[in-house]
Amino acid sequence: MKEQLIGRKKEQAILEKALQSRRTEMVAVIGRRRVGKTFLVRSFFEDKFDFEITGIQNAPQKEQLRNFKLQLEKVSKNTLPVKQPEDWLEAFVMLIQHLESLDSSRKKVVFLDELPWLSTNKSGFLQALGYFWCER
After folding, report:
1. How much of the chain exceeds pLDDT 90, in percent?
2. What CA–CA distances, in Å, run from 135 to 57, 92, 97, 98, 132?
3. Of 39, 47, 76, 129, which is least surrounded by CB within 10 A?
4. Per residue in 53-108, pLDDT tens?
5. How far, in Å, CA of 7 to CA of 20, rounded?
């Protein structure tokens, strides 16, 4: 039996507004550990994710990039050749290509979970995310 999302009306309204907006939107869901942030996002968006990745705790950048590649292969259903990205900039360029291959008439949903685990010191993740955001 699927768990239902109870309450969180204010948070759901924010997510709905972002989803219905004509603009590209970024929503950061922050809070203490184990309060249901990921459950909220997954319950709200259900099967609407065009790309989803969860950072791996205490993993080096190479492993995070491999995780990114594997998730991109999964969602692209091998419509794009997916190679191991050398860095986060290359990873986000690959994500842009994937998103551009999808139906352009609907909003794309990207879920980056456990962002601090992806964005380690000197990884270049935040700079690449900034590039990705500017390209949207």
Report:
1. 77
2. 28, 10, 11, 13, 5
3. 47
4. 999 999 999 999 999 999 999 998 876 668 999 999 999 999 999 999 999 999 99
5. 20
Contact of 35 with 8, CB cutoff 8 Å = no
**Rounded CA gap, 91 and 93, in Å?**
5
Element (H, E) at 100: helix 88-100
Question: Residue 5 has which token pair?
Answer: 């999302």
In one-letter notation, the amino acid at residue 24 is T
Q: Which two tokens stand for residue 131?
A: 């590039």
Alpha carbon 13 to chain centroid, angstroms: 20
Residue 3: what pLDDT?
A: 64
